[in-house]
Every structure is written in C-alpha cells, then in structure tokens.
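Assemble and predict.
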Amino acid sequence: MNKVRIGIIGLGNIGQVHVNNLLEGKVPRGELTAVADAFADKLPEFAAKGLKTYDNADDLINSGEIDALMICTPHFQHTTLGIQGLEAGLHVMVEKPISAHKADAERLIAVAGKHPDRVFGGMFQMRVEPRYIKLRELVQSGELGDLIRVIWIMTDWFRSEAYYQSGGWRATWKGEGGGVLLNQCLHQLDALQWIAGMPSKVRGHVGIGKFHDIEVEDDVTCYMEFPGGTSGIFISSTGETPGSNRFEITGTKGRVILENDKMILTRNAVPSDEWNQTSKIGFKQPDTMVEEIPIPAAEEPHAGLLTNFIDAILDGADLIAPGSSGIGSVELANVMLYSGLMDKPIDLPMDGLEWEEKLNELIAESTHEKKIAEVSSEDFTSSFRR
Ligand SMILES: NC(=O)c1ccc[n+]([C@@H]2O[C@H](COP(=O)([O-])OP(=O)(O)OC[C@H]3O[C@@H](n4cnc5c(N)ncnc54)[C@H](O)[C@@H]3O)[C@@H](O)[C@H]2O)c1
C-alpha cells in the first residue's frame, strides 16, 4: 500500500477543512475517496468532486472504499463511531475531543488497545506548531529548571450568540457534554498537559451561561496543583473581547512567556532556589538574560498532523498525537467543570463514571430551550487556528 484511502464522517466546519486539505494535495499519500454526512443535502457538492458519498456513517464504514476514517461529527459520536471504525478494521483519526467525557474516552481507548494493528490518532494540531513544540522542549529538557508556576490566560475564544445558534448540538449538555472547556479550550488543555503534565488536584470556578443564552460554561477560572509542587492557573472565556492568549511558564532557571505571537525567554543567571538560599541581600534578584525566541507559524497544522497519521499507517512512524493521549484534555475539561459545579477541589485521576453520572443528570434535567438561527460561518477558518 503506498496510499491511504480516507473517508470523512461529518462535513461541517472542520470536516470541510480536511476535505479541502486532502483534495488540494496537502497530505501526501492521503487520498480522500469517500465522505458521509447525515444531512444528505450536503452530499451533491462532494459527489461533484468525484467522491463517493453516503448519508450515514455505517455505509461509509462498511463501504470497502476506505482504509482510514476521520470522525468530524459532534462530540458524543466520537466514541461510538471510533469503536465502530476500529472494529471494522479501519485506522481511525478522531477530531478533538476524542470523547465527550472521560468514561467514554476510556471505552474508546480500550477498544483501540485491542486492535494494535490499527492506527488510532487524535486531531490535536497544536502539537505540530513550532511555538508549542519549543515550549515543550524548554520544559522537558530542564532548561527552565524545576517548574514553579504555569499560567494560561486564554480568553481569546470570543463567540457570539450567532455562533451558538448555528448548530443545535452546540453548547448543550446533550450535544457537547460541556462548553468552552470541552470545545474551544480542548486544544489548550491538550497542549497544557502535553507540555507540563497532568495536575494532581484541580479547583475550578465556572460561569454557566454567563455571557450567552446557553446551559453550559462559557467562563472558567481554575487553580491546579501538579505533582512535585508546581501550581497553575487556567482561565478561559468565550464572552470577553479583547481577549488574551498569554501562556507563562516559570521555573527555577527562568521564565518563558508566549503572548501575541512573541515568545520571550528570561533566564536567571543563578537559579531562583539557589539564589534564595545563598543571597545575603534581602531584595535583590539574580541577574537575567532576556531573549526573544523566533516562532515560525505552522502553515497547515491540520494537514501536518494528518500527514503524520498517514506516515504512521504506511511507515510505522510514531504518532505525534496518539488517540489515547487525548484522554488528558478530556479529563481536564471534565474535572475543571465538575469541580466548579460541585464547588470543591477534585483529585486526579478523577472518577470518570462519577462525572458521567452527573452529566447524565444535567442532560436529563435540562430545560433550556436552544435557539437555532441561520448564520454565516464564513469567518470559521480564520478564527479556529490558535
Ligand atoms: N481540530 C480543530 O481545529 C477543530 C475545529 C473545529 C471543530 N473541531 C471538532 O470537530 C467536530 C465537529 O465540529 P464542527 O464545527 O465541524 O461541527 P459542525 O456542526 O459544523 O459539523 C458536524 C457535521 O456532522 C454531521 N453529522 C452529525 N452526526 C452525524 C452522523 N451520525 N453521521 C454523519 N454525519 C453526522 C452534521 O450533519 C454536520 O454536517 C467537533 O468535535 C469539534 O470539536 C475541531
């Protein structure tokens, strides 16, 4: 096999991005052969491009037209379709989040574990962006020393009421399983745990429908404790503008700040813990060296990550974002929300079944009436790359 035949389920915003990337040849050795969407009116446009089209996932999965499946549907179907694809003998790339909640993620990962010959990837494209790769290197190489604090203020996810009215599943317990944490911030939560590891305790505060007429969270402030004593703050919102995207990591040997497309690294001439113990002066801090680290943009992060998935299938390359690693961001999204709703700190690993039960209660008790409106999605491609 020198090409991988790919099928995409879900031809909405992101499904169409992947369709275009594949048809435009941005994924070498990835050949889009077939697509499916439950909304059959969408299909003729894709048939006209020479693709086989199906109005349901089952027919695509069983078509024999594909080697690999990309799942680009709303969250809750990621687990069921992922399991179905793997059990049908397909390689599977699932959009973020890998599942709507941790217990489902565990179910999906368990099935993937039974099929080690199938490649199971997650679409966490920030992992191919040079800026996050660099941050990870700085942390993992020990260049920053022992981590003291990790702070990510990610309030630059503004969404209008029109956005929330653009899909019935959006911002509902039943359709998404959460709000800004599980949808928009999933990328940052994945990068956070990819770079700094998972916290061991979380205390979340969430605003439910604080800025929008929605039943899920659109505002979050969360305190985190990591094994080893690092502390962290994660803040997000879809309701403020201008928003910030500032990621600050401080270690004993220095601090790096990523903000406004600039990465500034400040190194301590003497590590702060050593200075603290040896300095004879009360206020003076160690000398510092400041450098700006160039951060080239990743031109096509989705296509880049998909190329790695194809390389893993054809050449056995290591996956940059194994699907199983997607459980970290799901757990963070779930636990920050759960902690906020329960108004108490929660230790990790969290009990996925407990959150599933709570989520099912929220779904069952939901009385919120979702407004749906025909809105433009023309700014989608310019707004989702962070
Ligand atoms: N990686 C990224 O940058 C990125 C960006 C946006 C969205 N996403 C993720 O992609 C997924 C989809 O988001 P979106 O914004 O494209 O949603 P969307 O609502 O625009 O599109 C979803 C599509 O799936 C179809 N669909 C739903 N159920 C189906 C089924 N059972 N079988 C076949 N088709 C079905 C719908 O008709 C719709 O066309 C979400 O999980 C989201 O979090 C990822």
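The chain has two domains: 4-126+301-317, 129-299+329-383.
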